[in-house]
Every structure is written in C-alpha cells, then in structure tokens.
Amino acid sequence: MTDKQAAVLDFLSQRRSYPPALLGAPGPSADELTELLTMAARVPDHGKLEPWRFIVLRGAALDRIAPLVAEASLASGNPPEKAEKHGNAFRVPVVVAVVSAPVEGAAIPEWEQFLSAGAVCLGLVNAALASGFGASWLTGVATGDAFARTNLGLTGKERIAGFIHIGTRGEARPPERPRPDIAARTTVLA
Question: Could you tell me which of 97, 93, 125 has the C-alpha nearest to residue 15?
Fold first, then answer.
C-alpha cells in the first residue's frame, strides 16, 4: 500500500452523524453547499447516468415544509410528540433532498441506479462532516410518494433517497452508539 491517507482513515473510523436537534445556524453558504454537492456527486455511477438530483431547502422553504412534515407524521398515526420531532427535524439551516431519478431504458438496472443515489446521500453527509458542519441522513414520512410529489415536485419514477440535514454543530456531541460486530456480519469464502 503506497498511498495511505491517514487523516481520511481517522475521519472514517470516527465519523458520527449529528441529529437535527444538535444543529444550528449558520449552515453552509451557497458556495460551500455547491462544493459539498460536487464532492457528494463523486460516487459510483455505472453507465455515467447521473440517476439522481438535488432539491435544496433553506429559509422560507423549510418554514413551509416543517409543519407539513409534522402534519403528515400525525396523519400516519404517530403520537403528537413524535410528529413534532419529525417537523422540527426540518428546522435546521439546510436540508438537501437527494432524489433518485432513474434513467428509463438504460441498460443499468433501476435498483443499481437507486444505490448510486444512496451513495450520494452518504457522500454528502461525509463531505459536510469533513468540512466541519454537522449532518445526518434521514428518511421518514416526507420521503413518501404522495408527500414528495405534492410538496417537492417529484415526477415519474423519482423517489427521495434521503434528506441530508446540515448545520453548525452545537456544543453537545451525539452519544456514541453500539457498532456492529463485524465478525458476526461477515462471511469469508475461500
């Protein structure tokens, strides 16, 4: 191994998402967000289809969406306190909806195109974290087809792969969570 990137390996071994409750202003500027999106787009993309797109939510858009998310959560049967938490997740400086936008008729299967959109989600979280912001990848009621079509303008076979919530890290750090037992999750074929 000749090109070991110790700082990157250290980052990856300790990376931790920051939930929206631990994020505050400011979020990334327009230029900073463009850099983050550019880094996030450096993902596996079999066939060079770019089967995803971004919807950036800031300011008034988040003010409009947050209560709609809470209402949708409540309508789906969640208790009021959980619905409020879901709405509050959209009260951060920036939320980027990563939209899986499969290219129809391509030789690349749709499921593989969807995985590319998922890779964009993780790439954006990692780019934001590595840039000093806090970030997390969430799904939930706002990823539902009806909600996304009505409130975010999705069409055709588009789906929300995830919402990436980005802001400034607060004083509190997220608690460490149990990590998988890699040996129990690994099969080696020889």
Answer: 125
Locate 190 and state its tokens: 């020889």
The contacts of residue 34 (CB under 8 Å, 6+ apart) are: none
Alpha carbons within 13 A on the beta-carbon side of 64:
8
* DSSP SS3 for 100: strand
Q: Residue 76, by phi and psi: left (phi above 0), alpha (psi -120 to 50) or beta?
A: alpha
User: CATH fold of 17-170, please?
Assistant: NADH Oxidase (3.40.109)
The average confidence (pLDDT) of the chain is: 96
Query: Do 23 and 167 meet the contact criterion of CB atoms below 8 Å apart?
Result: yes
Confidence of residue 57 (pLDDT cuts 50, 70, 90): very high
Question: Residue 137, CB half-sphere, CA atoms under 13 Å: how many?
Answer: 20
CA distance 116 to 168: 27
pTM to 2 decimal places? 0.95
Q: What is the pLDDT of residue 74?
A: 97
